[in-house]
Amino acid sequence: MRGIRIWARLLGLRDSVVEDVTVNGAGEEVEVVVQVRPGWRQRDRCGLCGRRSARFDRGGGRRRWRSLDLGTSFCWLEADAPRVSCRRHGVVVARVPWARHDSRFTRAFEDQAAWLAVNCSKTAVAALMRCSWRTVGTILERVCGEARLKVDLLSGLRSIGIDEISHRRGQRYLTVVVDHHSGRLVWAAPGRDRQTVLAFFDALGEERCKQIESVSCDMAGWIASAVAERAPQAERCVDPFHVVQLATDAVDEVRRELWREARREKNLTLAKDLKGARFCVWKNPENLTDKQQAKLAQVQKLNGPLYRAYLLKEQLRQIYQADTPEQAERLLDGWLSWAKRCRIPAFVKLARTIVAQRDGILAAVRLGLSNARVEQINTQIRLITRRAYGFHSASALIALAMLTLSDLCPPLPGR
Predict the structure, then answer these.
(1) Do the bridges between strand 54-57 and strand 31-38 make them parallel or antiparallel, or are there none, so unpaired?
(2) Do the beta carbons of residue 164 and residue 175 sit within 8 Å?
(3) Engineering a disulfide at 18: which of 4, 100, 343, 413 sits with its beta carbon 3.0 to 4.6 angstroms away?
(4) Residue 93 pLDDT more than 90?
């Protein structure tokens, strides 16, 4: 076998011709430079769309692309980089088969860097690939962008979950969309407002918006209004966790108000008992310890308003344990009637919120839908962020999240 063919086989080059190989440097500073050119079928093609186009000029002359290391030595591919005039994209650098457009690295190098970023820590990727973490971020964006062109993640969506996640200090948020049937992350973008959700529906398209049957989310108005405008036929399901959390917060607000009142009246014994009752009124009855059950019994005897608030919270939880949707509706109506006349300001206020969200709460019970899958995705995104010690841009985080959580990660070169 000829030497140039061996080099092409070692470097995984396809549709390319190896012209020459030189070794520069000495000692630990050795680098291998491989002179290549595209095969005749790949010449003079647009770097963006791949159409064969008329050559415009020689461009910037010779250019180098970083390839996978050969042992402990750097390896570079060197070739001409002419420009072509594409009818669709204008004057652009011609496509080369060994690298993505607008990249200084070969496909094999970028695929390996992306695979390592999905499976390893930031330090490991930067050390093994001998490049900076910021460079890895731009590589992830290119690899993810190409992968998303090959797979339509928005196809066949019927039931989705929408939520936001903070990815950086300073109120920096991402809005994420998850497919409930596949459990995959299908879309993400910076921002936490109505326009961000509308951008998702714009990407989905009018016809596919009509196919959405249900949307799970929290009680945020910016999500509800966008869903009502673009997918009015979809049932909006309010996440049960957020509903029960509002009731738990209301119970704690009652406890803290009673504690402040006891402090004002110099009743230190009652104040101490109220402070010690925090966990027993927060937790679910089945999770109480013996000591906490005794504390709850004491609250029942000595503090009527706090125990009544606790019962309101527990009755709201029972809605999600009903055997049928009809039973859940009756329980919810009964709870609203009790909460409106309970003379506890926190729960009177909560009742107004529940009335506004009544249809979404009953839809979640009827369909058995929650934001649990979305919260799982959010947890994994937090893990990705923590493992990378943060990202310089939201687009790099989104790219790594899509590669990890949407099955877009490329295989290792040659595997």
Answers:
(1) unpaired
(2) yes
(3) 4
(4) yes
For residue 387, what is the DSSP state? H
Q: In what order do the strands lie in the sheet with 73-80?
A: 16-24, 31-38, 73-80, 62-70
Determine the pLDDT at residue 1: 43
pLDDT bin (cut points 50, 70, 90) of residue 176 is very high
Burial state string for 184-202 with b = 16 or more CB within 10 A and e = fewer than 16: bbbbbbbbbebebbbbbbe
Nearest-10 Cα torsion for 391, 396, 397, 403: -140
379-385: average pLDDT:
92
Residues whose CB is less than 8 angstroms from the CB of residue 180 and which lie 6 or more positions away in sequence, other chains included: 159, 160, 161, 214, 216, 369, 373
- Do 298 and 315 fall within a single domain? yes
Q: How many residues does the chain have?
A: 415
Whether residue 213 is found in the same domain as residue 269: no
pLDDT at 273 over 80: no
- For residue 305, give every residue at least 6 positions away whose Cβ sits within 8 Å of its Cβ, in sequence order, or none: 254, 258, 344
**Which whole-number Å values give the CA distances from 190 to 53, 367, 399, 402, in the listed order?**
36, 30, 12, 14
Q: How confident is the model at residue 265 (pLDDT cuts 50, 70, 90)?
A: confident
| Whether 29 and 133 share a structural domain | no
Indicate whether 112 and 222 sit together in one domain.
yes
Q: Determine the Cα–Cα distance for residues 261 and 279; give it in Å rounded to an integer.
A: 20
Residues 227 and 109 in one domain: yes
- Cα–Cα distance list, 340 to 11, 63, 308, 329, 347 (Å): 73, 74, 13, 17, 7
Collapsing DSSP states into helix, strand and coil, what is residue 300?
helix
* Same domain assignment for residues 227 and 308: no
Phi and psi for 204 in degrees, rounded to 5?
A: -70, -40
Q: Which of 50, 75, 100 is the last residue of a domain?
A: 100
Within 25-153, strands assigned E span 31-38, 54-57, 62-70, 73-80, 83-86, 90-93
CA distance 305 to 125: 57
- Count of domains in the chain? 3
| Arithmetic mean of pLDDT, 154-162 | 94
Mean pLDDT, the chain, whole residue set? 89
Range of the domain at 179: 105-238+373-415
Q: What is the mean pLDDT of residues 5-16?
A: 84
Residues 292 and 337 in one domain: yes
